């Protein structure tokens, strides 16, 4: 049984212009202790998929179909009170902009200690005004939760964690705030950590450090990570497996090395060709023409057809299903379920159109 299984998920948003199918027929699987990438351009539905897994899709958005299973149990069957316990407990999330997620009126240590209290049996958390909460938490600096908060700051390599724990978020640099967010998310010792563009706002040096730390933390805490990014270089750096998402759908999935060595879907090939590489001149970059389509009532069967250099008439009429596309699948000798793509012009000779 997988840690997380997303099956045929459909999340939509009614608008005056029509229904936005932000996530459409998506399957996703994450095993314990692995880092799985979800990559695609802005507007491809990655963040809506993460919000749907977390159970934080805002109205009028709704889950129109499919299932999300954690340890085999459906999350969609649970009442909101149970979902809330899972959110920040078994599943935690780190967002791109930590300033929007951290409370500016509480110190960083207080916020991590609060998360520990909420999700671990070291004392009850209560909903109180920030001023009163600060007094209560501040008076309990010898508490187990506070000590755990210091440990968490140390684990994400915040220097002098004991004194920095008493700083407010605005006293931290951008990289330190993101580390604090990761510490807070891990404080509940989640089974799954969802990181939505966790390093996008940071410079490349800090980005590399945080990606390194995520990998180390995954091992230390045995936490699976779903890493959402538009940046293939980030995926190449840390992910075990990758799902490529386009216009609300997964279009290719493979182990990371295999995906970069042998990309099959024309969209994945376009993403790789448009990603800068240290060993290639920038003139060799080939951006994908056009934009992600408006997700309202898409009429063409393959969502990538208007941008695809290989599109034929059939691509607008026949919906491409997933098919094995690894080398063994290409020569027809055996299936290769580890590497699949949804493209009519890939797979074995018999399958191709
Ligand atoms: S099905 Fe057709 S349009 Fe879609 S990716 Fe394949 S070749 Fe391109």
Automatic annotation (TrEMBL):
<dbReference type="GO" id="GO:0005524">
    <property type="term" value="F:ATP binding"/>
</dbReference>
<keyword id="KW-0813">Transport</keyword>
<dbReference type="InterPro" id="IPR013563">
    <property type="entry name" value="Oligopep_ABC_C"/>
</dbReference>
<dbReference type="InterPro" id="IPR027417">
    <property type="entry name" value="P-loop_NTPase"/>
</dbReference>
<dbReference type="Pfam" id="PF08352">
    <property type="entry name" value="oligo_HPY"/>
</dbReference>
<protein>
    <recommendedName>
        <fullName>Nickel import system ATP-binding protein NikD</fullName>
        <ecNumber>7.2.2.11</ecNumber>
    </recommendedName>
</protein>
<dbReference type="GO" id="GO:0015413">
    <property type="term" value="F:ABC-type nickel transporter activity"/>
</dbReference>
<dbReference type="GO" id="GO:0005886">
    <property type="term" value="C:plasma membrane"/>
</dbReference>
<keyword id="KW-1278">Translocase</keyword>
<dbReference type="InterPro" id="IPR003439">
    <property type="entry name" value="ABC_transporter-like_ATP-bd"/>
</dbReference>
<keyword id="KW-0472">Membrane</keyword>
<dbReference type="GO" id="GO:0015833">
    <property type="term" value="P:peptide transport"/>
</dbReference>
<dbReference type="InterPro" id="IPR003593">
    <property type="entry name" value="AAA+_ATPase"/>
</dbReference>
<feature type="domain" description="ABC transporter">
    <location>
        <begin position="4"/>
        <end position="272"/>
    </location>
</feature>
<comment type="subunit">
    <text>The complex is composed of two ATP-binding proteins (NikD and NikE), two transmembrane proteins (NikB and NikC) and a solute-binding protein (NikA).</text>
</comment>
<keyword id="KW-0406">Ion transport</keyword>
<keyword id="KW-0067">ATP-binding</keyword>
<keyword id="KW-1003">Cell membrane</keyword>
<dbReference type="InterPro" id="IPR017871">
    <property type="entry name" value="ABC_transporter-like_CS"/>
</dbReference>
<dbReference type="InterPro" id="IPR050388">
    <property type="entry name" value="ABC_Ni/Peptide_Import"/>
</dbReference>
<dbReference type="Pfam" id="PF00005">
    <property type="entry name" value="ABC_tran"/>
</dbReference>
<keyword id="KW-0547">Nucleotide-binding</keyword>
<dbReference type="GO" id="GO:0016887">
    <property type="term" value="F:ATP hydrolysis activity"/>
</dbReference>
């Amino acid at each position: 049984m997988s840690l997380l299984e997303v099956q045929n998920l459909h999340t939509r948003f009614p608008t005056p212009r029509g229904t936005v199918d932000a996530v459409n027929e998506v399957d996703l699987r994450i095993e314990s202790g692995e880092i799985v990438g979800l990559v695609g351009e802005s507007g491809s539905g990655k963040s809506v998929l993460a919000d749907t897994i977390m159970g934080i899709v805002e109205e009028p958005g709704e889950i129109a179909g499919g299932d999300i299973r954690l340890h085999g149990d459906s999350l969609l069957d649970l009442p909101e009170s149970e979902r809330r316990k899972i959110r920040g407990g078994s599943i935690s999330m780190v967002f791109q902009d930590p300033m929007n997620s951290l409370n500016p009126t509480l110190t960083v240590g207080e916020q991590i200690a609060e998360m520990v209290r909420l999700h671990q049996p070291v004392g009850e958390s209560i909903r109180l005004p920030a001023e009163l909460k600060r007094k209560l938490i501040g008076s309990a600096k010898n508490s187990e939760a506070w000590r755990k908060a210091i440990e968490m700051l140390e684990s994400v390599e915040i220097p002098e964690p004991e004194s920095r724990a008493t700083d407010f978020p605005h006293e931290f640099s951008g990289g330190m705030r993101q580390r604090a967010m990761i510490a807070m998310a891990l404080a509940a010792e989640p089974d799954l950590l969802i990181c939505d563009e966790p390093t996008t706002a940071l410079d490349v040096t800090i980005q590399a450090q945080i990606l390194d730390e995520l990998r180390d933390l995954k091992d230390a805490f045995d936490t699976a990570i779903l890493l959402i990014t538009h940046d293939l270089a980030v995926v190449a750096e840390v992910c075990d497996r990758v799902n490529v998402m386009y216009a609300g759908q997964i279009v290719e999935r493979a182990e990371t090395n295999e995906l970069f060595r042998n990309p099959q879907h024309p969209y994945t090939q376009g993403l790789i060709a448009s990603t800068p590489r240290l060993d290639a001149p920038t003139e060799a970059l080939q951006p994908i023409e056009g934009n992600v389509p408006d997700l309202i009532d898409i009429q063409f069967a393959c969502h990538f057809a208007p941008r695809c250099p290989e599109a034929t008439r059939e691509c607008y009429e026949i919906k491409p299903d997933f098919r094995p596309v690894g080398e063994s699948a290409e020569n027809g000798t055996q299936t290769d379920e580890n590497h699949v793509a949804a493209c009519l012009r890939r797979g074995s000779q018999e399958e191709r159109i």
